[in-house]
UniProtKB/TrEMBL annotation:
CDD domains per the UniProt record, alphabetical: UDG-F6_HDG (cd10032)
Name of the featured protein: Uracil-DNA glycosylase
Native source organism of the sequence: Bifidobacterium tissieri
SUPFAM superfamilies registered for this protein in UniProt: Uracil-DNA glycosylase-like
SMART domains linked to this entry: UDG, UreE_C
Domain Uracil-DNA glycosylase-like: from-to ranges: 14-172
Source lineage: Bacteria, Bacillati, Actinomycetota, Actinomycetes, Bifidobacteriales
Transmembrane segments annotated in the record for this chain: none
Length: 180
């Protein structure tokens, strides 16, 4: 068995999930190969993002169908996208990301009610701070960002209840902006 360690240049391949009523934006780094294949967010069967969100909103885990999961996100007023539009990457390894080109977050933040950004994982937070935040500030947009732990199966040290507890701030932020 040959292990490929050469990075591949990949493009994101699908757009954000959001609408004018979105209150928070949840950003990953770059979709995994499984997510790029399905053209939707957090589609690796072992990624715990959707079980976490289902637990937060006290609902069953949405079926692994982009339309169903998009409806779930919009109904609960969270937008989904990624920090990176394209990069060089080995598989799904965030630590291998090189030559990252950021997505332009300004248009959807301006056209929605997004008042808080959350990143899933350390690399997404690092790249957001370095690549996205300066561009937002240049465009007169200041929005707080909170880094959250990765829901990836690679983050095995955090169990589902721990992730759900960490992600509770997402619901609090949505609720706070909904009642204001």
């Amino acid at each position: 068995m040959t292990i490929h360690s050469n990075p591949t240049h990949v493009t994101h391949g699908f757009g954000p999930v959001w609408d004018a009523d979105s209150r928070v934006l949840i950003l990953g780094s770059m979709p995994s190969p499984k997510s790029r294949e399905a053209s939707f967010y957090y589609m690796h069967p072992q990624n715990r993002f959707w079980p976490v969100m289902a637990a937060l909103f006290d609902e069953p885990v949405p079926e692994p169908d982009p339309e169903i999961r998009s409806d779930f996100a919009l109904r609960h007023r969270f937008a989904l996208w990624d920090v990176i539009a394209e990069c060089d990457i080995v598989g799904a390894s965030d630590s291998s990301i090189r030559n990252a080109v950021p997505n332009d977050l300004a248009p959807i933040i301006r056209a929605s009610r997004i008042s808080h950004v959350f990143t899933t994982g350390g690399k997404a937070a690092q790249l957001y701070r370095r690549l996205c935040e300066p561009h937002l500030v240049e465009n007169g947009i200041t929005v707080p960002m909170t880094p959250l732990p990765s829901t990836s199966p690679a983050n095995a040290r955090m169990r589902l209840p721990d992730l759900t507890a960490a992600y509770q701030v997402v619901v609090q932020s949505i609720t706070r902006t909904t009642t204001v």
